[in-house]
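Fill in residues.
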């Protein structure tokens, strides 16, 4: 067995971790050093400043424990596959807790980079709209991450190619999901210091818990944002086709506004139900942005609503949501709103919907009550 890092119940020293793994402290340090190679230099500095054993949070798992939790990584527990690994559903024997277990693909060193990036990000920030890292394992050449299980799956799975037994998301739920996802992004951009740029905001990485509570997930491509007088960081372009900001694609200059563009694309996806890239659309409309912007500019808002909604939305709410999305996908980065403005705008949309529903409910109740009191009683009818 190799080493598994943990700080459950408090920080554990490298020596203690080594003793638990039956290898020497020097071997542990060497293994950690190898994994840090080729990370973002500022991630390396962050690890150095805080101490690896303090950063690695959550429960320590052996490979055998996670193998057992997934029934030997059984096909019927397979949840999906990302750019750098496969994800399985599991149940921990010790607690009975359901979890999601990601096995990192270490080819080309990207798996190691993603492993440490996820750990540094999820150990640095905690929020109700960010997925929780429960634990991890480093066992020989195996790198595994263990997350809380999100029972309703990804937002993407509720928007596209719905199975007959899956009910489409209603309008209120869509706005609720957008508000929560925006708050998660706000925590990364505003509360983290330096800010954290997700770099892979997309519907597949927004996971849903009970009550459609959204959480951002998959921080393997995240970068620490610019500090001081710097306006951007220069980096190799990575992300997902259709979600990447055009300015980032063209220049490699990454800013928090790159995430804002991606979130705007997610908003269009949620509002319209359209796929982000669709080869069945005309060549000039393959991307959802190219497809939607002409209709937004012409104010053909009703044409943009997801047909499965069957008109069950308030037109003003649709209009306001589309305007926010259009601002987010502005081709010029410095014209995009910051995430706090996006959160405020979406919250106002959500609250106005709640007020309308309460007013409508009271009105219906009043009408029903008045109708009931206006009906003649049987004894009154007989006496007349």
């Amino acid at each position: 067995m190799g080493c598994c890092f943990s700080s459950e119940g408090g920080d554990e020293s490298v020596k203690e971790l080594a003793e638990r793994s039956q290898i020497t402290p020097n071997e542990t340090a060497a293994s950690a050093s190898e994994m840090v190679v080729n990370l973002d230099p500022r991630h390396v500095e962050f690890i150095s400043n805080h101490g690896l054993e303090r950063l690695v949070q959550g429960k320590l798992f052996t490979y055998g424990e996670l193998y057992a939790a997934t029934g030997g990584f059984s096909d019927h527990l397979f949840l999906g596959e990302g750019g750098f690994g496969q994800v399985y559903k599991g149940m921990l024997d010790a607690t009975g807790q359901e979890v999601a277990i990601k096995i990192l693909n270490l080819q080309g060193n990207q798996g190691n980079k993603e492993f440490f990036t996820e750990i540094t990000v999820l150990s640095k920030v905690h929020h109700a709209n960010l997925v929780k890292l429960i634990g991890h394992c480093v066992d020989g050449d195996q790198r595994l991450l263990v997350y809380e299980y999100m029972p309703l799956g990804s937002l993407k799975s509720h928007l596209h190619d719905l199975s007959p037994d899956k009910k489409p998301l209603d309008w209120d739920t869509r706005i609720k999901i957008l508000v929560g996802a925006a708050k998660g992004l706000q925590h990364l951009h505003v509360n983290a210091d330096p800010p954290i740029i997700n770099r892979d905001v997309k519907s597949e990485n927004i996971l849903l818990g009970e009550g459609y509570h959204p959480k951002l997930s998959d921080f393997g491509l995240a970068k620490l944002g610019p500090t001081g007088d710097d306006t951007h960081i220069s980096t190799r372009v990575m992300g997902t086709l259709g979600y990447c900001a055009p300015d980032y694609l063209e220049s490699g200059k990454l800013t928090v506004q790159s995430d804002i563009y991606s979130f705007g694309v997610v908003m269009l996806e949620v509002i319209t139900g359209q796929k982000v890239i669709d080869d069945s659309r005309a060549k000039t409309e393959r991307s959802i942005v190219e497809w939607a912007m002409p209709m937004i500019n012409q104010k053909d808002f009703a044409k943009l609503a997801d047909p499965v909604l069957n008109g069950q939305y308030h037109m003003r709410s649709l209009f306001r949501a589309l305007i926010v999305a259009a601002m987010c996908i502005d081709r010029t980065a410095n014209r995009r709103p910051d995430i706090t403005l996006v959160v405020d705008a979406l919250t106002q949309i959500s609250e106005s919907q709640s007020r309308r529903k309460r007013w409508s409910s009271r009105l219906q109740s009043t009408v029903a009550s008045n109708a009931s009191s206006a009906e003649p009683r049987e004894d009154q009818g007989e006496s007349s």
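The longest helix spans residues 339-374.
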